[in-house]
Protein backbone atom coordinates (compact mmCIF):
# COMPACT_ATOMS: atom_id res chain seq x y z
CA UNK A 1 0.00 0.00 0.00
CA UNK A 2 1.22 3.46 -0.82
CA UNK A 3 -1.41 5.51 0.94
CA UNK A 4 0.08 8.47 2.74
CA UNK A 5 -2.23 9.21 5.59
CA UNK A 6 -1.98 12.72 7.01
CA UNK A 7 0.19 12.88 10.07
CA UNK A 8 -1.61 12.72 13.36
CA UNK A 9 -0.96 15.45 15.87
CA UNK A 10 -1.21 15.44 19.62
CA UNK A 11 -4.43 17.11 20.67
CA UNK A 12 -2.68 18.58 23.70
CA UNK A 13 0.52 20.09 22.31
CA UNK A 14 -0.03 19.71 18.52
CA UNK A 15 3.28 17.94 18.00
CA UNK A 16 3.27 15.23 15.32
CA UNK A 17 2.68 11.77 16.73
CA UNK A 18 5.13 9.00 15.85
CA UNK A 19 3.56 5.56 15.46
CA UNK A 20 5.03 2.79 17.59
CA UNK A 21 7.63 0.50 16.06
CA UNK A 22 6.30 -2.81 14.79
CA UNK A 23 8.55 -4.49 17.33
CA UNK A 24 7.26 -2.40 20.22
CA UNK A 25 5.68 -4.29 23.06
CA UNK A 26 1.96 -4.68 22.86
CA UNK A 27 -0.79 -7.02 23.82
CA UNK A 28 -3.06 -8.98 21.53
CA UNK A 29 -6.79 -8.47 21.56
CA UNK A 30 -9.53 -9.97 19.41
CA UNK A 31 -9.23 -6.99 17.08
CA UNK A 32 -5.46 -6.81 16.82
CA UNK A 33 -2.40 -5.75 18.75
CA UNK A 34 -2.74 -2.75 21.04
CA UNK A 35 0.34 -0.62 21.66
CA UNK A 36 0.91 2.50 23.67
CA UNK A 37 3.13 5.49 23.03
CA UNK A 38 3.58 8.70 24.93
CA UNK A 39 4.02 12.17 23.50
CA UNK A 40 6.82 14.43 24.65
CA UNK A 41 4.22 16.40 26.60
CA UNK A 42 3.20 13.27 28.47
CA UNK A 43 -0.05 12.68 26.63
CA UNK A 44 -0.53 8.94 26.02
CA UNK A 45 -1.64 7.52 22.70
CA UNK A 46 -3.18 4.11 22.10
CA UNK A 47 -2.64 2.28 18.82
CA UNK A 48 -4.41 -0.69 17.33
CA UNK A 49 -2.74 -2.82 14.67
CA UNK A 50 -5.50 -4.91 13.11
CA UNK A 51 -5.07 -8.65 12.92
CA UNK A 52 -3.59 -9.73 9.61
CA UNK A 53 -4.17 -13.07 7.99
CA UNK A 54 -0.96 -14.04 6.28
CA UNK A 55 -2.15 -17.35 4.88
CA UNK A 56 -5.33 -18.46 3.15
CA UNK A 57 -7.51 -20.76 5.14
CA UNK A 58 -9.42 -23.59 3.52
CA UNK A 59 -13.08 -23.16 4.39
CA UNK A 60 -14.65 -25.72 2.07
CA UNK A 61 -13.54 -28.45 -0.26
ZN1 LIG B 1 1.72 16.21 23.08
What does this structure look like?
By secondary structure, the chain is mostly beta strands. The chain has a domain at 11-16 and 26-51. Helix content is 0%, strand content 26%. It has no helices and three strands. Strand 1 (27-28) and strand 2 (32-38) form a beta hairpin. The radius of gyration is 16 Å and the shape is elongated.
Supply Rg.
16 Å
Distance between the termini: 32 Å
List SSEs in N-to-C order: EEE
Report the β-strand fraction as a percent range.
Answer: 25-35%
* Overall SS class: mainly beta
Shape: elongated
- Number of H/I helices: 0
Task: Please outline the major beta sheet.
Answer: 3 strands, antiparallel
Helix content: under 10%
How do the strands line up in the largest sheet? 1-2-3
Provide mean pLDDT, rounded. Answer: 85
Low-confidence residue ranges = none
- Tell me the total number of β-strands: 3
Bound chemical compounds: zinc ion
Please sum up the structure shown:
The protein has 61 residues and is an all-beta fold. Helices cover 0% and strands 26% of the residues.
Give the topology, please.
Layout: E1 27-28, E2 32-38, E3 44-50
Antiparallel strand pairs: 1-2, 2-3
The structure holds zinc ion.
